[in-house]
């Protein structure tokens, strides 16, 4: 059995091969290739693609590919279902799902940084998931702290943290990185696609597309980019003497006509009308 996915794995693309080799097909061959080559090589090599958008073995709603493997192969082992939310929380960068997710993410990121060969990375990471499986099988209720006094203090601290967390909404770490990435592209007049962003952040495109609006003004990725371009255009109309065609170019629109149409949709005025009303306000204020 051959399985193929994107190169440079960290969480799901390591956890799923571990699951395949340990519970589905011990002789399975796992192939890592650049994103654009997954589909064509899957057909050429007669391999099953996984953890990419638009294939059977992928993310569904708030579930990651590891969850789908458990469902598809009807794997009932309780330890695997203890592991699943840990893997999901690490893969989706939502460490509120399971307290162990943050640790798994840190270990996976460190290993991926340290080991550049994907097959070597998979081989070394198998022991990580074997260890996680052993913990989930035999030790999920075990406590590291044995001293009763320390245990009471930890319980008080956890209660304090849970009350504090309940008052705030957890925002994934990738959101601030993404804001900077979008701003940099807007400032340098470069086109920015969801695929490019996903690769830069090492996030699944399906997950990013689904989660984006939760943290970016309830807008889709495309809507948010257009809004950012309009905001930059507004600044240029207010503070520069650039022509409308130049502003259209500087803000990433295909031409002045496209710029005018989108600007009117967002502001109710064409760029020239906006600039004229701005000049009139300045003139009135001087008078």
From TrEMBL:
Biased composition (Basic and acidic residues): 272-287
UniProt-listed SUPFAM superfamilies: Homeodomain-like
Keyword Transcription regulation: yes
Pfam families: ChrB_C, HTH_18
Chain ranges of the HTH araC/xylS-type domain: 176-277
Keywords: DNA-binding, Transcription, Transcription regulation
Stretch list, region Disordered: 266-287
Cited Gene3D superfamilies: Homeodomain-like (1.10.10.60)
Name of the protein in its database record: Chromate resistance protein ChrB domain-containing protein
Organism: Larkinella insperata
